[in-house]
Structures are given as C-alpha cells and as structure tokens.
Specification:
The protein is mainly alpha-helical. The longest helix has 18 residues. It is globular. The C terminus is likely disordered.
C-alpha cells in the first residue's frame, strides 16, 4: 500500500513555503491597512508563520514544540480584524501562493484553508480600520 503524500510534500517542502511566506510578508509590508497591525520587526512573525504553515500542512512539528497549540483566534484577538483586513490579508496570501507556483492539488487545498481561516479570524464587524500595531 502506498502512503499518501501530505500537502507539505506535494507543495515541495520547506523552500516553497519559505518563499511563500516571504512573498506574503512583502505584500503586508507594502499594505497600509495591514502594516499597522504587524510589529516593526517582521522577522519573528515570518518565522512563526512559516513554522505554523509547514506543520499544518504535514511537515515537521516544530511550531508546536516552540509555541504550543496555535490558538489562532486567541493570538489574533487583540487586533480588530474586519472584512477589509480579512480581504487584504487573504489577497496577499493567495497572491503569494500563486507567485511561487504551488502545484495542484496542494494549491487548491492551501487556498481553501486560508480562505476559511481568514474568515474565521474576523472579530470586528464595525468596518473600522485597525490603528494599533503589535
């Protein structure tokens, strides 16, 4: 019986995920809405996001070893995430996936996950723009 590959394996492993996170953060850095929600030093966030994505899609479990359970809603609760912020975040993530050329079926699986997760992070339905950074 042949073992089914994980999304991490199908997507090419570490290198494409690192490039995807770099492309995503490049978009965030240039986005006036989202940039205010991130700390001045993007390095630690990039590293944590890379570890999380790698683990979530079937790679090594270093994220859990380093940070414990992801608790995405809890970790994002201090930031007012409305539909505009969700759409901006998701747009940069989907563009990053496309930019690095994640192959199918990993591409669709990743896009669907990020769409669901971005919507799940909405915690502010007032339409306001987040004004504080981390």
């Amino acid at each position: 019986m042949q073992k089914q590959q994980t999304v991490y394996q199908r997507g090419g492993g570490d290198d494409p995920l690192r490039r995807m996170v770099d492309a995503f953060y490049g978009g965030v850095e240039a986005d006036p809405l989202l940039r205010r929600m991130f700390p001045a030093d993007l390095g630690p966030g990039k590293y944590h996001q890379y570890l999380f994505i790698r683990q979530y899609f079937g790679g090594p479990a270093e994220y859990a070893d380093l940070r414990g359970h992801p608790r995405l809603r809890m970790r994002h609760a201090p930031f007012p995430i409305d539909q505009h912020a969700r759409d901006a975040w998701l747009g940069h993530m989907l563009a990053a996936i496309d930019e690095i050329g994640i192959a199918e079926p990993a591409r669709t699986i990743m896009r669907e996950y990020f769409e669901r997760t971005a919507t799940h992070m909405i915690n502010n339905n007032t339409g306001g723009i987040p004004l504080t950074g981390r």
